[in-house]
Specification:
Order of helices and strands: HEEHHHHHHHHHH
Distance between the termini: 45 Å
Shape: globular
Largest sheet: 2 strands, antiparallel
Radius of gyration: 22 Å
Length: 278
């Protein structure tokens, strides 16, 4: 399969406090669950029947080739969130550290008060809203959690962690169409977002019965993470057995692409000739 430039190491784990503060959390990578119905075994919530977006609308990375037909190391689009110019006041950082320590210690009430303080004093920070969403989830207030994750996104549209957190709680509550829209929104913000591809693949695979769409996004995640995740590779191999599609959706060599185009053209001519003979 294709190669990803060694200059890129995809990760959502914040390397500095500023990144965590503004985003609210580190990476959220799913463990592929066993499908147990709408709410993953929790209290059932009827899945919304909103129209499912066509999987074709989901952006995918594409392997590039030079004129000689050789692979060009793929350089993913940088995370628009971590590459942004975020200036966080020292006081906000200090409060965030205290709040996070309280959350880690299980003091949900104390942590919530501190994060609330941050949202009031520093309304341009999305991270505290993500943390408040996580607290609501711990309290099993899932509607509140959804509202808070959406608030984080409204504060900063590029907060990729908020999309993942929102999509996960939507999926767990049986809102599969909503979760799909959320992951697609995340990929429109950042096409090369590995965890969004993986979460979307799991959703398509286990909940929406769209094996081919799942295959595309398992492959995208595997490609973007340097083809090192053996667990996801096994999932990709397994879904390929079901779809019968052995080729790549991302790495299509020029010669193969030209051959496919020629074959499609021949088919069109044949169809036209057949119609003319009728």
């Amino acid at each position: 399969m294709a190669t990803v430039s060694s200059k890129f190491r995809p990760t959502l784990a914040a390397s500095m406090l500023v990144s965590v503060l503004v985003s609210g959390c580190s990476s959220v990578v799913p463990v592929k669950p066993q499908a147990k119905g709408p709410a993953d075994g929790a209290d059932a919530v009827t899945s919304r029947q909103a129209p499912i977006v066509s999987p074709a609308e989901a952006p995918l990375p594409r392997q590039v080739y030079n004129p000689a037909g050789e692979k060009v190391p793929y350089v993913p689009i940088p995370n628009p969130y971590t590459t942004g110019d975020a200036s966080v006041p020292g006081e906000a950082k200090s409060i965030f550290v205290v709040a996070s320590d309280r959350l880690q210690a299980g003091d949900l009430k104390g942590a919530s008060a501190k994060f609330r303080m941050l949202t009031e004093k520093y309304p341009s920070l999305a991270g505290p809203w993500v943390k408040l969403g996580a607290i609501a989830e711990k309290q099993e207030k899932y509607t509140v959690a959804i509202e808070r994750y959406k608030k984080a996104i409204s504060v900063n549209r590029n907060n990729v962690n908020a999309y993942i957190a929102l999509g996960l709680v939507q999926r767990r509550q049986g809102y599969f169409s909503d979760a799909q829209h959320t992951y697609l929104d995340a990929l429109r913000v950042w096409r090369d977002f590995p965890e969004a591809h993986l979460n979307l693949a799991v959703l398509y695979d286990l909940y929406l019965n769209k094996a081919e769409a799942a295959q595309k996004h398992y492959e995208a995640y595997y490609f973007l993470t340097g083809e090192k995740d053996e667990k996801v590779h096994k999932w990709l191999v397994e879904v390929k057995h079901r779809t019968g599609i052995d080729g790549s959706f991302i790495d299509v060599p020029p010669a193969k692409a030209a051959k496919t185009t020629a074959a499609e053209s021949d088919d069109a001519v044949t169809v036209a000739a057949t119609k003319g003979a009728d």
